[in-house]
Structure formats: C-alpha cells, structure tokens
Amino acid sequence: MKTVLAVDDSRAMRSMVQQTLESGGFTVLLAEHGKEALATLSNNKIDLIVTDINMPIMDGLTFIREVRKLDTNIPILALTTEAEAGIKQTGNGLGADGWIVKPFQPAQFLDIVRQMVE
C-alpha cells in the first residue's frame, strides 16, 4: 500500500484529501505546514507528497525546496488555489512534479495521484 503525505493548513482540505486518497486505497499521513511535514517525512517512507502552497510557518514552495535537498525522487503534487503561471513555474522549478488548482474533482485527483506513484 502506497503512503501519501498531505500537507495543508486547512483542516477541511486535509480531511477531504485524506478521505479521497483513502477511498482510493492509499495510506495517508497529514501535516499542517511544511515544517511539520519535514518531520513526518524523516520518520516515514512516503511514496508521494501532496502539498498546499500558501501555508503559515513554512509555505509550500519552501517545503518543496527542502524536500528536494533530502530526496530528489519522491513525487510532489501541489494542490493549491494558486493558478498564476509565475508561481506554478517557480514551484515546478523547485521540484514540483504536478499542479492541481483547488477545488479538485476527487476522481481526477485520484487518477493523477495513481499516475504519479506508479
């Protein structure tokens, strides 16, 4: 079973992502911001990271940069309200492998996640 780390400062969004992924057969670990997610990452085998961009304490772009210092292979999917091309480009440049703008369609989200972990 694949494990996904979902990082979002919104409890409701974490819950929605968790329910969607668990319905697709994934194990889900949750973090509220990048700093918490880095601690979770260091203690667990993670197959995919789904991260928000706008978060307190450590935002998603900084988090992506930090993850890439530790692991260049783990797939990272940004799930964010940010649709601006410049931010997306920055995220991709830092190492994001995919970008989904909220709100998401659960079936489409699961398809993308499955493609990224296979």
Topology:
Elements: E1 3-7, H1 11-23, E2 27-31, H2 34-43, E3 48-51, H3 60-70, E4 76-80, H4 85-94, E5 98-101, H5 106-117
Parallel strand pairs: 1-2, 1-3, 3-4, 4-5
Structure description:
By secondary structure, the protein is α/β, with parallel strands linked by helices. The chain has one domain (3-117): Response regulator (Rossmann fold, 3-Layer(aba) Sandwich). Helix content is 47%, strand content 19%. The chain has a five-stranded parallel beta sheet with strand order 2-1-3-4-5, with helices on both faces. Helix 1 links the parallel strand 1 (3-7) and strand 2 (27-31). It starts with a strand and ends with a helix.
Q: Short description, anyone?
A:
Helices cover 47% and strands 19% of the residues.
What count of helical segments does DSSP give?
5
General form? globular
Strand order of the largest sheet: 2-1-3-4-5
User: What structural category characterises the helix and strand content?
Assistant: alpha/beta
N/C terminus separation: 12 Å
CATH superfamily caption: Response regulator
Q: How many DSSP-defined strands?
A: 5
The biggest sheet, with number of strands, parallel, antiparallel or mixed sense and barrel status, is: 5 strands, parallel
Remind me, CATH topology? Rossmann fold
What fraction, in percent, of the residue positions are helical?
Answer: 40-55%
CA radius of gyration is 13 Å
Number of spatially distinct domains: 1
β-strand percent reads: 15-25%
Mean pLDDT: 96
The low-confidence runs, each spanning 5 or more residues with pLDDT under 50, are none
CATH architecture, please?
A: 3-Layer(aba) Sandwich
